[in-house]
Amino acid sequence: MTTELRVLDPNDWDRWFEVLDLAFGGLHEPAESRALWRDLTEYERSLGAWDGDLCVGTAGAFSFRLTVPGGGLVPAAGVTMVSVAGTHRRRGILTSMMRRQLDDVRAAGEPLAVLTASEPVIYGRFGYGAASWAEHAAIDTNRVRLSVPEGTDGVTLRQADLTESSAVCEEVYARLVPLRPGMVARGPGWERLPLIDPESEREGSSPRLCVLAERDGEVVGFAHYAIKPNWSFAGADGSVGVQQLLALDPAAEAALWRFLCSVDLTSTVRIHSSPVDGAWRQLVSDVRRCQPTAREVLFVRVVEVGAALEARTYQAPVDVVFEVEDAFCPWNEGRWRLTGDAKGASCVRTKDAADLALSVRELGAAYLGGTSLVSLASAGRVRELREGALLEASVAFGSPVAPWLPHGF
Q: What pLDDT does residue 28 have?
């Protein structure tokens, strides 16, 4: 390989981003999106692979704080903007960028790296495991009815300007971050992400709209959505596309769903992303009519086994020795004793006999509590070496709420 890896110079950002844009289809990111990503780029965490004066590979990372089971916020590198030019494939460029990046993440003291994958098959070999899922659905509002809880009628709804309401929506988001594993705290600049709404990506829908849920003058929820009109010979058959719906209590959430399911001249509510335990499932009269489908969203890479497993809590007492395989980050390989409960945990190296054997990929998949160790074992990806250890660890690693990442990065 003749390419050279270099930290991104701000003066090279346009050339660097063009390589990324071409790798993702050459659709040319709309100007407002491009401006946001330029402003959010952490140059000292961004790498370019160069063949002479030609940029042929890109990789970056955001400095996130990720919610883990127990409600703690853990430093995590948000891996992003990864691409290799089609002319330079199969030369080891991606591997070299992943190698450098994980070394840098470790040096920065971040126990985790996370990413969303356009092609999930790529990242398993670098130790990333699918750790959270999002559900998509299409509610047939002509046939499906909602059953809402008491107190819903006490919630007031108000149409609001998307930009002017941004601050109060971010406050709602921030209050929810510690309550669900997989969410990331949005730092300065990230409040612009929900506002990006280029006309070229609307596919016939209206500009993005916002409705606020209020109680006693306080905003307790919001929904970002768009309306796509459609008319057939039989009449109106439009749809409502829900980009994001977040609320602080069940009544506020139900009020927002009831509003969206009753928008005039529409017959379908399309949910773009919901946690797999989303409240809407319990509100609708017929889930089958909503055509739910799920896909993995957040992939977790445990960079430092001890620090990562100590950073979260466990919903049941656990005392188990893991035999961890990690060829890409060999400092993780070996036996680790995890002891913990709902109050905290310790994870240290040990010479004791192993109870469970797994790779770091499976450890990442189970880390947020959304993928059970029992499920992984059923596919042969976790091996039980001490009878009873698998169930003990699987229960402990679980989460009472499903992990979910509401947006990409």
A: 79
Q: Which candidate, 393, 409, 177, 150, places its Cα nearest to that of 254?
A: 150
User: What's the pLDDT score for residue 26?
Assistant: 81
Q: How far apart are CA 184 and CA 42, in angstroms?
A: 17
The pLDDT value given to residue 1: 54
Residues taking part in catalysis: 123, 409
pLDDT of residue 234: 86
Contact 388/281 with Cβ under 8 angstroms? Answer: no
Which residues are registered as beta bridge partners of 226?
A: 241
Strand 73-84 relative to strand 112-115: parallel, antiparallel, unpaired? parallel
Helix (H, G, I), strand (E, B) or coil at 269: strand
Find the helix or strand (DSSP H, E) in which 13 lies.
helix 13-23
| List of residues 6+ apart from 111 with CB closer than 8 A | 74, 75, 76, 302, 303, 304, 307, 308, 311
Sheet of 47-51, strand order:
4-7, 47-51, 54-67, 73-84, 112-115, 293-302, 129-140, 266-274, 238-247, 218-228, 209-215, 156-160
Distance in angstroms (rounded) separating the CA atoms of residues 202 and 207: 7
Instruction: Give the pLDDT confidence score for residue 246 in this predicted structure.
Output: 98
Query: Distances from the Cα of 58 to the Cαs of 6, 113, 123, 202, 363, in angstroms?
Result: 10, 17, 15, 28, 27
Structural contact between residues 303 and 111, judged by C-beta atoms closer than 8 angstroms:
yes
Type and span of the H or E element at 213: strand 209-215
Phi-psi region of 307 (alpha: psi -120 to 50; beta: other; left: phi over 0): alpha
Compute the mean pLDDT over every residue in the chain, rounded to the nearest whole number.
97
Answer whether 134's CB lies under 8 Å from 295's CB.
yes
Instruction: Give pLDDT < 70 ranges for the chain.
Output: 1
